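Section handout 9: paired folding examples.
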Amino acid sequence: MNAPPRPQPTDPRDRPARLTVGVVGAGRVGPALAASLALAGHRPVAVSAVSEASVRRAGRLLPDVPVVTPAEVLARAELVLLTVPDDALPGLVEGLVETGSVRPGQLIVHTSGRYGTKVLDPALRAGALPLALHPAMTFTGTPVDVQRLAGCAFGVTAPEELRLAAEALVIEMGGEPEWIREESRPLYHAALALGANHLVTLVAESMELLRTAGVEAPDRMLGPLLGAALDNALRSGDAALTGPVARGDAGTVAAHVTELRKHAPETVAGYLAMARATADRALAHGLLKPELAEDLLGVLADGAEGDKR
């Protein structure tokens, strides 16, 4: 279902800007969020970018916004988006504080799914206002990302006194805030990675196998099937499980493993792991009959042993 268009009653340039916005890290996320905030009347004033690709991306989504150093971004902006890879975030925060770049009263927002606001403690001690706003969305680095933020859930962690500010920023970007406890951030992020990142891998592998099997347009074949499977899973959870594993068709699964070993041996371990997880869930929810499960689990165990040999 397409998200409803975001209301734009007036040109944002005709409204008084409420906050100047800076972006540290012009990957796929930061420029899109800043462009979305611009639609809400805020004013992007600076962005830092290192690679040629990130400079081009910033130019597409934030035209006429100067590319400067991270320190200069903080010097110009009241609201700073730190949109760097998770592993780089702690060092970036510490470095900005050590160089005196962080100002009291400055809103420092990171978009990491893994971290809450504790990673911003050095900035907090310097007087900044810390927010963790993670959009649960995949980004392309193109203007379509701004449109996709409409209705997008954001995993939000913030001090109690900043909850209203966090909510307001998410809503202004067209998103929906979902509060995540500090200690739950890694689990929250793992859940999203399991569902979204691994889905891309599974779909890509499935398309490659279909091409090997002679299908000329695997995307057209998979599109309706995967769309229906996703819709059913979101609506019904485990009750939506279908296929040979849920039915207990051990012979079919054994044939799958044989063919995968022949044509795409690198996919066997993933197939077996997902099949075992599917079998466990189907058993637990009464979809897989126990009398059929024994042979099926035997096939999966034999397949795993074959991988070790």
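Moving on to protein 2 of 2.
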Amino acid sequence: MRADRLMAILLLLQQREQVTAAEVARELEISERTARRDLDALGMAGVPVYSVQGRGGGWRLVGGARTDLSGLTAGEARALFLVAGPASAATPAVKAALRKLVHALPEPFRVQAEAAASALVTDPRRWGSDRVEHRPPRFLDELQDAVIRGVQVRLGYVDRTGTETGRTVHPLGIVAKGPSWYLVSNTEAGRRTFRIDRVSSVNPTADPVHRPEDFDLAGSWREIADEVDRRRMPLEIQALCTPHGIRLLRMGFGGRLEVGGPTPDGRVEVVIRGNDEYVIAGELAGLVEWLEVTGPPGVRAHLASIGRALLERYPCTPPSGGT
């Protein structure tokens, strides 16, 4: 926490040019004694800070010195440098920029930033495979640049059938979904999403993007993802589950599970999404101790059929010596 306090004090000095120990104590909710000790620590660490004695005095930075990181706390600075490590997925430009930022940090934070840069390793290979997977798609940088500059793009695109088309799009944002990257754009046909690994060419134009004033990339992507989930998993299974079984359902179905409210008998209403009645019945068959499927009827019928098949394959025989 002390590193965060020292960074906060430095930011106060940059914003106000002069602060008193009382002001620092009030802002950071610490004692004046602690504030004075922290101000002294900044000076001993090499930050060009000095005190002005007497009435109207306080603490100042020599020559109005700045770090050019006025929006970062110490924790945020460390988080940034985590992505700059030698094995990270950051682009060379990002790594180079963050390395330059290290030199703008005061000495107390520079050591932690440099340590953070070597604290994270990402290995894109699967176990048992030498093949590196999930490489960034070819035209990712060009499309990011178009989004940032706000210019329309003439896009070459290959759909899932292998047909290549060309169109002009208004890039609004880029989303990473697991190993895949998507471009969210406005087109003549409305808002569309393109898988960037299917993009065959990118030619920026000089025309500006028409960006809706109320556009929110995160909110727009949630709507897109929900619609894709509904198309992939159009089947909804209604069921009642014991409280102890909810954890098993979460482990088995993840985002396909929606947990509702309790019922008078103490169970919990749940909805599970799927795309085939027989397949989902097979997934649920092992959970009958905790789960009662109430609909649709086709899934209940498949569960009954699976139960009969299990009894035929594994007939109940009393243990030896039983009656």
